[in-house]
Design brief:
Helix content is 40%, strand content 18%. By secondary structure, the chain is an alpha/beta fold. It has one domain (8-259): Vaccinia Virus protein VP39 (Rossmann fold).
């Protein structure tokens, strides 16, 4: 399948890689949300397993999973610049024997069927332009995953966004919006598709209290301008709470764990 990568979304991520190099900021400035993603996915990594990280960016999160002692991790991303810095970071960490990086598109991964024990994405499907393209990507991730393996789609979803915005409207706060380079998934559609295909899955709500705190409560209980950006003591407080408790459907980041 021929993939056209010459678009503004790819250009955005290429520029992010060039600007932030090996930093977590290349994929997102919210380090606490990234850590929550990493911790959640790490729960499903088994020692000696083969892992595929789809949309690995500069490898920041990929390298964190080496602490779980997988047999290997393969990272792919459609941005050549992201893969360039992933390989630079790999050499610095001296993990060439454990990690490989390739420029690949999630809709055409170019691996054999059933190649990996675990395949996961983090905010990758949302970079595709519509649901039809997202379905192609979902099926491609399922294809390259072994029977009895797992696929985790750790993505951003529309329904929690509308729930948060309903709360913000009540307090006369401006709504949160999708960025131009994001197309949030609709849980209703995702559920319907998986149910139609008789695919077994569960939804992990791993970020709701963090989002409720960092995207709503923070702005009504503290002078907002005092704590600009993501890395502030109020966000850290809700990150710490999230380690013990979650729920409520406020987490824009949700994880679909699919049991193949």
């Amino acid at each position: 399948m021929k993939i056209d990568n010459k678009n503004y979304i790819k250009e955005f991520w290429d520029n992010q890689a060039k600007k932030f190099k090996g930093s977590h900021n290349a994929s997102w400035g919210d380090i606490y949300a990234i850590d929550l993603e990493i911790k959640n996915i790490a729960n499903y990594i088994k020692k000696g397993s083969s892992i595929l990280d789809v949309g690995c960016a500069n490898g920041y999160s990929t390298f964190k999973h080496l602490s779980k002692h997988p047999k290997s991790i393969t990272g792919v991303d459609s941005s050549e610049s992201m893969i360039k810095y992933a390989n630079i970071n790999k050499k610095k960490l001296k993990v060439d024997d454990k990690v490989k990086f390739y420029v690949r598109d999630i809709r055409d991964l170019q691996f054999k069927d059933e190649s990996f024990d675990l395949t996961y994405t983090t905010r990758v499907l949302i970079n595709l332009e519509n649901w039809e393209q997202q379905i192609i990507a979902i099926n491609e991730c399922l294809r390259v995953t072994k029977k009895n393996g797992m696929v985790i789609f750790s993505e951003a979803f529309w329904e929690p966004l509308t729930l948060l915005n309903s709360m913000r409207t009540l307090m006369r706060l401006s709504p949160l919006v999708e960025q131009d380079f994001n197309k949030y998934l609709k849980m209703e559609k995702f559920n319907a598709y998986l149910n139609e295909k008789k695919i077994r899955y569960e939804i992990i709500d791993f970020s709701s209290l963090y989002y409720l705190g960092s995207r709503f409560l923070r702005e009504i209980v503290t002078p907002y301008k005092k704590y600009k950006g993501y890395s502030n003591p109020i966000n850290k407080l809700f990150f710490d709470i999230e380690q013990e408790y979650s729920g409520g459907g406020f987490g824009i980041q949700q994880a679909y764990v699919i049991y193949k």
